[in-house]
Write a structure and sequence with these properties.
four-stranded parallel β-sheet; 31% helix; globular
């Protein structure tokens, strides 16, 4: 990018759902745009668990950023950089990169998302990986497949048990989807592939601290999801607070002041909490704002930062509210919210450049979807003039399936996912079970 250009310099941090939509909203404007991401790919995160459980390959849910943005790059005002952002100099209006480069901006859109939160117990991450990136998915896949392989090597049934016990911590959509898929792999994909072990004896335990699974859904759908998990064979334990995780298992407490119990397990997956990107702290330090408890940046109604209208924060990093009818309400941390914020931030930036007043952000709720397993899902859709339409089971599963195919980026990805799912449905096969190398010993960072 030519630093002396007369055109306004817009820097977008993050190439997730929010960053992509913001860029598309600005690409035809008379501005210089630089988008920065630490990876070279855009990831369809709602299906990441399918990569972790060997249902899909990585290219099926991801695509190179430069390929995704090829039409925008043809316009000549876009620069794509793969780099790690180390800080933001709000006073000097510069983004600091890992190689020491300083990237000047006139307008900044921060869409760097969220990471794992272990609620102050970061040491647990060595034993219970979370799922936010392709690297996380590969790690989990390696541990899951490796657990069965290790169990096959053991002659003693008692020694095998911890290797064939899988614990998923957190019963939000990711945790529910992971647990349901893992039990299906054990019961339907692997039974004929091992000689010494019977994979159908696998125990998948889902731990949740709150009283019910899928807490963001209405109680009726939560109960339906739990019933579907029970039918699949998942051991669901709600009201259980994790107190410790190590290489040999999980400690948890039942209820307030209840007894502490132990689960012997060599494979633990973390799906219990998220924390905002560390760049939130850099923004807070430079602007004087106070982050919320999750480390998110409070934003103005137009998604700008108080006192710094040149900075917009969107997606999971923003503690944003929707300004429609009635009282402002929090925007949920879901991909439709990030996309809508990206479009709104771009539109407000263009209004500023035109000398026009900005508009408050209004979130349009398209509902909640979660799959539980084969032919099992729950759907909650708001329909104008009718109210909430809620259903579950096979019909919900079909709706979930086609909705996710529709929102994937690119025809190739949609076709691959549709074919892979069709094969998996009829044969129970999961051909993406290849791991690059033997998995690390459980518990190693």
């Amino acid at each position: 990018m030519n630093a002396t250009t007369a055109r306004p310099r817009v820097v977008i941090l993050g190439c997730g759902f929010g960053g992509i939509e913001a860029l598309r909203g600005l690409s035809r404007a008379d501005v210089e745009i630089t988008i920065v991401d630490r990876t070279n790919h855009h990831l369809f995160q709602p299906l990441l668990y399918q990569v972790a459980t060997a249902g899909l390959t990585a290219p099926a849910i991801s695509a190179p950023i430069r390929h995704v943005l090829r039409s925008q790059m043809k316009r000549g005002n876009l620069t794509v950089l793969q780099a790690q952002v180390t800080g933001i100099d709000t006073a000097g209006r510069q983004v600091l990169l890992d190689d020491g480069q300083q990237l000047p901006y006139d307008h900044l859109i921060v869409a760097t998302g969220a990471t794992h939160s272990y609620f102050g117990h970061d040491a647990w991450s060595a034993y219970a990986p979370g799922l936010k990136t392709l690297a996380d998915a590969f790690t989990i896949r390696s541990r899951v497949i490796g657990a069965f392989e290790h169990a096959e090597r053991l002659a003693d049934a008692a020694a095998r048990a911890p290797w064939m016990t899988f614990v998923v911590i957190g019963a939000g959509p990711t945790g529910v989807e992971m647990a349901g898929t893992m039990i299906e792999i054990a019961h339907h994909t692997l039974p004929q592939e091992f000689r010494r072990i019977d994979s159908r004896r696998t125990n998948v335990i889902l731990l949740e601290g709150s009283p019910r699974v899928l807490g963001a859904f209405v109680p009726q759908l939560s109960e339906r999801a739990r019933a579907q998990l029970d039918r699949l064979g998942v051991d669901v334990r709600t009201g259980c607070m994790v107190t410790g995780i190590d290489a040999d298992g999980v400690d948890y407490r039942e209820g307030d002041g209840g007894p502490t119990r132990r689960i012997a397990s060599k494979t633990v997956i973390w799906a219990a909490g998220v924390a905002a990107s560390p760049l939130g702290r850099a923004i807070a330090a430079g602007t004087g704002i106070t982050l919320d408890r999750a480390g998110r940046v409070p934003v103005e109604p137009d998604l700008g930062v108080a006192g710094h209208p040149e900075i917009s924060v969107i997606g999971d990093l923003a503690a944003a509210r929707s300004y429609g009818r009635g009282e402002p309400r929090p925007v949920p941390g879901v991909s439709p919210g990030a996309k809508q914020m990206g479009r709104a931030a771009a539109a407000n930036l263009l209004r500023r450049l035109a000398g026009q007043p900005t508009r408050p952000f209004r979130y349009r709720d398209y509902g909640n979807l979660a799959t539980v397993g084969r032919k099992a899902a729950v759907v909650d859709l708001p329909v104008p003039g009718i109210g909430a339409v809620r259903f579950w089971g096979f019909a919900a599963w079909l709706f979930w399936l086609f909705a996710h195919i529709y929102f994937l980026i690119g025809f190739r990805n949609r076709l691959i996912v549709m074919l892979d799912w069709a094969v998996a449905y009829w044969t129970y096969e999961r051909s993406a079970r290849v791991v690059a190398e033997p998995p690390p010993t459980q518990g190693e960072p």
